[in-house]
Amino acid sequence: MLKIQPPTAIDFDPAILAKDKNEQPILMIDVRFSAMYGSSELDILQMEKYQHIPFLMFVNSNIIRIFKSPDFAEVARLETKKVLGFYNPKSIEGIIYQSTLITLIQSWLRDLDYHWKSENPPYIEEIKEIGLFALLEDITTEDLQLL
Asked: What is residue 146's predicted lDDT score, i.e. its pLDDT?
């Protein structure tokens, strides 16, 4: 029987684009639900295509990794389930679909900006420390991939 090995490296493939109030891209997010991409140690390749974007984020069902341009140093690691569970506790029970993950990540970003759910959204201090919070004023997000 053939055993499928999960990849150890993948190309960055954004699913979400976040823009600031001036319509300038500030964050691109690659979202991967599949257990194939669940490793917290995946090498993320091809990020140099996005050097004009201040931050890149990779989200899987376990971890959120944030990288800062221009050298794409990893500046934060956050637990995906702490973010998702805050906005939809049922989402962390059982199966979470790709579209659910995208929607909840967008909800979190909007909460960081508008505080619609909480004055202290999950990981707000970490987002402030890396400099991303200052860019989130009046953001808009858009899906880049049809699911």
From this structure: 54
| Top-ranked range on mean pLDDT: pick from 21-25, 39-43, 103-107 | 21-25
Give the C-alpha separation, 14 to 50, whole Å: 10
Is 98 a member of any domain?
Answer: yes
Residue 129 maps to a domain: yes
Please say whether the beta carbons of 106 and 141 come within 8 A. Answer: yes
Instruction: Tell whether omega for the bond before 6 is within 30 degrees of 0, i.e. cis.
Output: no
Closest CA to 62 of 32, 29, 31, 38: 38
For residue 51, is it within any domain? yes
Domain of residue 31, residue span: 13-134
Q: What is the mean pLDDT of the chain?
A: 88
Work out the number of other CB atoms within 10 angstroms of the CB of residue 135. Answer: 18
